[in-house]
Amino acid sequence: MSFAQLIRFERGENLLYNLDPRTKLFFSSLIMIISIIFLEVWFLFSILVFELLIFHKLRKLNLFLSSLKSFILFILLIFFSQIFFANSIYLAISYSLRFLVLMLIFSIFFLTTSPDDLGLAMESLGLPHDISLAFTMAIRFMPVIAMEFQTVYDAQRSRGLELEAGGFRDKLHKYIPIIVPVFISTIRRTYEIADAMDVRAFGAVKNPTRLHTLKMERIDWIIILLSSSLFLILLLIDNFIGLPKLLPLT
Length: 250
Known about the structure:
Structural class: mainly alpha
Mean pLDDT: 82
Number of strands: 0
Strand content: under 5%
Number of helices: 12
Low-confidence stretches: none
Helix content: over 70%
């Protein structure tokens, strides 16, 4: 459920909520590319601090900290795999920071972007209406399914089901009474959505009109220009001078 909470959109008054989704998609993509290209620990840590400040402004920092425990095992796996295979503590820290940076920017995008606006952005970028609708519906219902899973999980535990006892195979078998009801509920909800779409004659019009349209404002163009310029400057510095390293990459 923690991961679902990190991508659950709730309308807010912060500037990020009012930006065009294409601007946020562009900026998020640049952050992802930068975190993949550059391995310097101090640089990735700086991006991570910047993202945490955004979470603080969104009043979601406590949500991230409470959800972080769900990713501790994966972060440790990344860290120790680099120590074991690459024999490098520097790379272990760098790859762990990269994972956090990617996870946070992914979360920031979905926390501040309405699924409806995301669908409009995808269509404006050339994706077919059916694909954008399927994607936005998946994003919209992922937190709902996660909350339903948590409800069934709590209900089964209240009935005396010991989910933490036993080995891996025993735990897997004990999760069947949880997975089956959630799966059946999801299938039922899928049929309900399909019936609702049929009633509204979905697909009868090839190019349906929209009640709301996207419009790039001045602040969107400023953010795109500044982020693009910063990205190009970083590339030039890295190619001709090289970003400084606080520790040797070993």
